[in-house]
Specification:
Elements: H1 18-36, E1 41-42, E2 48-50, H2 52-55, H3 60-66, E3 68-71, E4 77-80, H4 85-94, E5 103-107, E6 110-112, E7 124-133, H5 138-155, E8 163-169, H6 170-180, H7 188-196, H8 203-212, H9 217-228, H10 232-235, H11 243-259, E9 264-266, E10 280-286, E11 294-300, E12 315-321, H12 322-331, E13 344-346, H13 352-367, E14 372-374, H14 381-390, E15 395-398, H15 401-406, E16 408-413, E17 419-423, H16 427-435
The chain binds histidyl-adenosine monophosphate.
């Protein structure tokens, strides 16, 4: 056994060193800029919640297999949040009578799920969430959320060649189960879960899982027809007049129009594993063969707030995880070269007056809005240049004894090695020109 503790982070989690953190911050800043342009406001909440808030309506898989829960010292059963939606619903419910509607909230929480770590799946991930509560017109909110997802992807330069959004409707699914397939209500959740797995198993396995739920051959054939057909299956069916079907068809038409017809598609096998969804559900997929995991998912969940308050309020939202989204951006070459934020390195000499001058110059530059790193104090100037170079800082400013006497400074551009000596009063103006 080694004498030292392991430096590895806990299984399924990541350390973010500055290069990774820089990219993550950039990714979040693009996301935040876009969502704020839609009028959403940021929220946050504790990492720990009472476990009950997940028991009723979060997915069975999360509650039974993935939740990190423990008893605290006061004998309360608590959980580390595996998702943000119950917390967002709790917060909305707590102030539902006072908050101006619609409530448009976003958050960037880290979430914990006890997963088998693998490509695109970790135990801790960050998830962008955007949710709208209490819209006067729910179908407009559905469209707004999908439009937000589309705008987010285009803010990163993604196009129809990179991703697809698949839409379905929970109430339509239930109507198909009840009125066409005649499946008993207590089997709906299990049959939906099997449908969710359809693309991951063979045709025979799919059928045998359905048989396991008691479906007969005619029901299985009809269900296969339903999942393999387009929207016309519904338009030509006995449930075509139901409001949910009309709503789904209209949402598809409108989202087709918003996205130019190529990004948003109907997909009856998108069921989403969470029990709280009631209406439109959707999932976003990368078209790159290396990244088959879902990039984002969400839907309408009108009854979750009623777990916390007697007031009813409609809600729709989605979550997008940083792990698969980062893979998406990498695979499609959509990450720009993001450098260290430091713009100027101020060299320092060992004489007391020159060290003081270096500190004063740094302060002057910072006050003017530059990001400045002061030398760590190497005696040799060459080492200071190496330091600036290794940190990719583009400009070095220095003042030696000769310059101090003339009240000038030397500005060195690291990429070309070009140096110029300027009067102290011209330092800021020259740097602004050099850096812009
Ligand atoms: P979800 O489908 O569980 O939905 O997660 C949304 C996204 O988070 C996934 O598409 C995936 O990108 C990412 N994700 C989830 N689990 C992991 C994991 N273990 N490792 C890496 N990435 C992961 C929800 O959580 C819903 N609460 C979303 C929502 C918000 N619905 C309405 N509002």
């Amino acid at each position: 056994m080694s004498d030292y503790l392991s430096t590895a982070p806990y299984k399924g989690t990541r350390d973010f060193y500055p290069p990774e953190m820089r990219v993550r911050s950039w990714m979040f800043s693009v996301i935040e800029k876009t969502v704020v342009s839609f009028g959403f406001e940021k929220i946050d909440a504790p990492l720990i919640e009472p476990v009950e808030i997940y028991l009723a309506k979060t997915s069975e898989e999360i509650v039974n297999q993935q939740i990190y829960s423990f008893i605290d010292r006061g004998d309360r059963k608590v959980a580390i949040r595996p998702e943000m939606t119950p917390t967002v619903a709790r917060m909305a419910a707590a102030r539902i009578r006072d908050l101006p509607r619609p409530i448009r909230w976003y958050s960037l929480p880290n979430l914990w799920r006890y997963e088998k770590p693998g490509k695109g799946r970790l135990r801790e991930h960050w998830q962008f969430n955007a949710d709208i509560f209490g819209s006067a017109d729910e179908s407009l909110a559905d469209l707004e959320i999908i439009q937000l997802a589309l705008e987010l992807f285009s803010a990163f330069g993604a196009t129809e060649n990179h991703y697809k959004i698949f839409i379905n409707h929970r109430a339509v699914l239930n109507a198909v189960f009840e009125k066409i397939l005649k499946i008993p209500g207590d089997k709906w959740a299990n049959v939906s879960r099997i449908m969710d797995k359809k693309d991951k198993v063979s045709g025979e396995e799919f059928q045998s899982m359905l048989r396991g739920e008691g479906l007969g051959e005619i029901q299985i054939r009809e269900l296969e027809l339903y999942v393999n057909s387009g929207i016309n299956y519904l338009i030509n069916s006995s449930i075509s007049g139901e409001n949910c079907v009309k709503h789904l068809v209209e949402t598809l038409e409108m989202t087709h129009e918003i996205s130019g017809g190529k990004i948003v598609h109907y997909n009856p096998s998108v069921v989403r594993g969470f029990d709280y969804y009631t209406g439109i559900v959707f999932e976003i997929f990368d078209l790159h063969p290396e990244n088959r995991r879902s990039l984002a998912g969400g839907g309408r969940y009108d009854n979750l707030v009623t777990a916390f308050t007697k007031d009813t309020v409609n809600a729709i939202g989605f979550g997008m995880g940083d792990v698969t989204f980062m893979d998406f951006l990498k695979n499609h070459g959509l990450i720009p070269d993001i450098q260290n934020h430091s713009q100027v390195y101020v060299a320092a000499f060992s004489e007391k007056n020159l060290r003081m001058n270096a500190i004063k110059i740094s302060r002057l530059l910072r006050n003017a809005g530059f990001n400045v790193e002061l030398s760590s104090g190497h005696k040799k100037l060459g080492k200071q240049f190496d330091e600036a170079h290794s940190k990719k800082i583009p400009i070095v400013v220095l003042q030696g004894e000769t310059e101090a006497q003339k009240n000038t400074v030397i500005i060195k551009e690291m990429s070309t090695g070009a140096q110029q000596e300027v009067a102290m009063e011209e330092l800021l103006a020259t740097l602004k020109k050099t850096i812009s």
